[in-house]
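dude i think i finally got it to work??
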Amino acid sequence: MPLPHEFTPKRPLKLREDGGFRILMMSDAHQKPGDDVRTIRAMGALIDRTKPDLVMLGGDNVAACASEADFEAQLARIASPMEERGVSWAHVYGNHDQTPVLSKRWQQEKYEEYPHCVSKLGPTDLPGAGNYFLPVVDGDGEPVFGVWGLDSQQDWKTQTVPLSYEGDLYWDVMMPMPIQSYSDYDFIRFEQVMWYWNTSVRLEKLCGRKIPSLMVFHIPLYEFNAVLRNAGRTHLKGEYNERLSNSEINSGLFAAAFQRGDVKAIFAGHDHINTFDGVYCGIHMGFDGSIGYQGYGARDNDPGHDRERLRGGRIFDISRDDPWDVKTDMVFVGGLD
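look at this
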């Protein structure tokens, strides 16, 4: 049965006539005021090459804007590759998107003004903005696949919803011998995990079955390390060039997705020069590199001596014949000009 209106994006996401659906994820545009158009050109080149049915912007989309006018001008730039081509697109927020001047909820209104943007603010009682589910439907409006967008928050200093914690987070969480990350990033809050769980259960009841899905957010989960550290068992491919910048607090989201069994792929941005992916406990996880030219690229000591070789995004292909089998690979900007 078709889903209730609350789940329907303003532009329906439909399988193509051949039964396929392609998503292109591009993260870390870090679009700033100025005349640098390389990021916009690269986004357009990847869209033209891959011909996606949906573009997902994976966070840190617009950065360093000191005013609302600056933001609107830079958002117009990063929206232009999709809007000019008539391609549906959605986004999640990264740790650099919210500023003291520009709340994510204000930004969300501006995103949603674009005709082809299908992102949603999501429930207003959840931390952050942009917690949503987008169904991909067949010709009869039946959901075949889904895309979850989640706000992975920022860091301890710029919490969207401050924790009711009386201690010093930097002292109590960032220990001299950290569990893993050495980073001060916030975590996907329990309210968001509970929302995913309850919405997933509701979707199953409405449809009489679970809906296979992709989950996208900016800051990687703790469990991405399991993929990296067990390369043989997880069939790791791609590159690992910088330490994973997940939160020191384990959000529990992976456990919820693992137990529900509907999320088959979880992908993040944030770590610009990590492009690896693999399968852990039946869930495909990894990164999509970085598309932006105003953020950092491959390090100066890169073995290939090429700072731009990892500039790109990631495609996901879904088929009506087996929507549980999500096929994914990186696509790079090099050679597209």
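The mean pLDDT is 93.
im so relieved honestly
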